[in-house]
Amino acid sequence: MRRKLKVKLMISTLVESYHALIDFEYEKYKRTGNLSDAKFTEDEAIKILSKVSSNPKAILEELIKRGFVIGLGDSYRTLHFDVAYRAANIRIQYETARYPLEAKVILDDEPLPEWEDHNFEELKDIVNDDSVYSALAYALYAEGYNGLGGGDIRGFSDFQWSSIKTILNGKKKAFVLSAPTSSGKTYAFLIPLLIEIIKGKISGKSSRALLIYPRKSLERDQLNKLISILYRVNEFLRNFLKIDDAITVGIDDGETPRTRDATSGEHYRGVTCPRSGCKDSPLEYSVTSKGVRVRCKRCGYNYDWILGTREQIWSRKPDILITNVWTLDWRLPSKAIQHDYKLYDGVEYIVMDEAHAYQSLLGGNVRYLLKRLKNSTNTEPKVVLASATLPNPNKFARELLDLDERDIAVISTENVGRRKKKVLYLVMGIHPKKSWETATYELALLLGTVSHFRNIQSVIFIDSIKSINRIYYSHLKVAVEMYNEPKDHLSKDIASNPDDPYAFWVYGNGKINSNTPKEIFNKIQIHHAGVESREAIEKEFARGRYGVLLATSTLELGVDYPNVGIIMNVGVPFRSESLPQRVGRAGRNPERTLNTILAIILVRNTPLEMYYIFRPEELIHGFKNAEIPISWRNIAVKRYHALSMLLDEIGREGGSTYILSEDGQPENLKSFILEILEKSQNRDVLEKIEGTILEHERAEDIIKGIFEDIAKLSKSFEEIRGYKLLGSEINEVLWDLTEYLWTLKEFAEKNEIKIFLDKINEIKNLLEKYGVKVNGI
């Protein structure tokens, strides 16, 4: 305990010292506007650090040893400022023009929460149940339960404490957790859910929660953490309370296999075994005569409380179900889900993490999707929204959830704690005559070098899969394999001065050899929706196998990688809140990153983007004043959900909707439409749709309009089908004509009948004029 406390105090001192050095460099930069001036001598460092520690020289030596301070001969520079300096002067060859035309630096302090505002043991007073508290302590508390078990929580911030108490109080219909990234929002909503679910296991009354995430990478990240917690909770329930009814969990989305499709040995969602001695051992599917299980590959432990297939999830209805809005929209109209399995029965909590993602048309759809979902729960579920980038949380919740202000509790934080996260923004505009893609691949090599030698990871966000693939395969891969880049940057013979921005060798500490360029490239990888192995890449990135990821928005939300200290964004994101979300992925671990972030923003040469070179503060802080629109009045959105709700009602009453394969197949489209039309005449159903979706519009008119459109569409399909049949007949005629011309040509050539050959060529040219290719004639 004392040793842990001593290490924690030392890390805290290092963080404060490093931040003090960065502040000093920034003041120097502001005086001249030159990044090259952002450095310090040993005497200056000792003077600065003496305000933080009684042994400033030892602190400086420790920072140098850990790779956070770079030696430049007779001066030093912090790692983050040094990377910014070399990035702002990136160039493809020595002594050529740099690619950035302009570069500006802005330094921000982001407050971090104080985890010691409330001791973990204070939970006893609000849980008011020794068994429930003991289970939580065994699973989450750093001290464990009577010295057994144990998690990684010592205490809670004021924000977390207020969130836990307010949610458990339950006097509101909805709760909005609005706090910056790294504020511990996950525990703030998860602990109240666990308390209610554990109480249900003890009393025999089930309580269920639905967790909705906007990204599959976030689903996987949260599932991994949740399984580690549930393993310890279930162990306590079984061993100490003698309760065999374990808390079950499942993830239902497009990647969840059916039982018949599960394969033994296939990894389960990139999740690793939480048991002692099995660190990083993957969980996998095991298919036997007893059914499908999820088990640990190494120790063989069967996780029977993890429901791994669709049928298991639908039939057993897990206590905690993870999904996304697209899967929900596909499930709700299904007879199998609504009537046969009643999947969403008994859900008492709905959590929407990263809720700001549900805006514009998507937000309008989610508003009505949640209304339809509540109709399927047979409860009055509480809704929890969590986000770091909601400029007006109350207004957002009112529009997304269609609730009155008095039914919503907003828990926010000013985060006025002493601890800070230091964010160094480097905003660069690319020269009009230079390629931003070339600059990006050169910067990727710089960040790869930093990762290779200094163990600081980077994520480069590019909002285009094509651009990512082109930069990685056509630029990076070719540069390394054909030209052994970045060999020139690593050569002291080319750039001998350590303060020369072209020199990357300063990060190497003499560990550079002929294989280094390829080793650097091997630590760079891509991540987007089209990468099949992205689960494995996420896992290897978390382990440190990769140092730089070129990613789309797939890694924008919620995922936690402790070694990430540098974020680069290529271009200006479409949404203003995307930038703080991306920057928020970094600087989380005080020991590995010293709570410091370098955020590089590469502005491309377009009028819209170049504007932010002159107004960088608007780019960095613009989200704070931005409105988040929710298009719930859009008539197309209402029409869609009116029809969907009609199908929901048919499915709930046992009528076939043919949404999933389990619902069967219709005999023909016409009979299915007639069946829906018949249901649409039911006045009770129409009134329910009007009250839930349409409000002022008449459901009968809306439904009638929808089916008129369907009728037009059916007519169009018949016309298309007719054209297709005509096209097939024409193709047959052309094929016969080609065969005939072939035969005629052979006969003419054999008998040397020139007039026939000329006519054949005339016919061929005429056909080709109208786009018909007659090959070989």
A few lines on this structure:
With 777 residues, this protein is of the alpha/beta class. It is built from 27 helices and 22 strands.
Report on this model:
By secondary structure, the protein is α/β, with parallel strands linked by helices. The protein has an eight-stranded parallel sheet, with helices on both faces. A hairpin with a 4-residue loop joins β1 and β2. The longest helix has 53 residues, at 699-751. The termini are far apart.
Core attributes:
777 residues, alpha/beta, eight-stranded parallel beta sheet, seven-stranded mixed beta sheet, 27 helices, globular
Record field, number of beta strands: 22
Uncertain residue segments: none
Query: What does the average pLDDT come to?
Result: 87
Number of helices: 27
Beta-strand percent range: 15-25%
Overall SS class: alpha/beta
Gross morphology: globular
Radius of gyration: 31 Å
Which strand order do you get reading across the main beta sheet? Answer: 12-8-13-7-14-15-6-16
- Termini separation comes to 88 Å
Helicity, as a percent range: 40-55%
Sheet with the most strands, sense and barrel status: 8 strands, parallel
